[in-house]
Design brief:
With 157 residues, the protein is mainly alpha-helical. The protein has one domain.
Amino acid sequence: MTVKEFINQVFLDEYNRIVNQGFHYISFALVGLGIEFLGGCLDPYDFGETRLSKARFTNALKMLFPQGYQQHSNALYEDLRSALAHQFRPGSRFWLTHSEESQRENTQHLGAFKGGTVLIAENFYQDFSDACKKVIEMIDKGTLTHPKSSGQFLKIT
């Protein structure tokens, strides 16, 4: 399976089903890890290189996500990606919710709420999905030239 096939199958198909079936909390952890992966697609280093997590995560936000994420990039790395990856709970700077609850509470994605920032699962996934499509487009256009972009990424039987 190539990187492009992996993005299509896992991020655009399987993650989408997770969000749409209402597994919102789990989707935040998965998207956080996926953002780091997308950042790994953008840099010239092999996926197995170590000590690149934060750089990959913040670079993906900068290059692939809407501008509203930029001011939160370090906090998203620390309190979302890392906290969920290591503790399976977010840090204190974010309120995790979904669209139905957000409508009820009158909150907005990336908006302020009780001293923190709101992340709405469906909005977060949509922005991640759009970022995935940008990476696929870069692969298709040949602007990602590292061999990892076109070689085998994962063996699945």
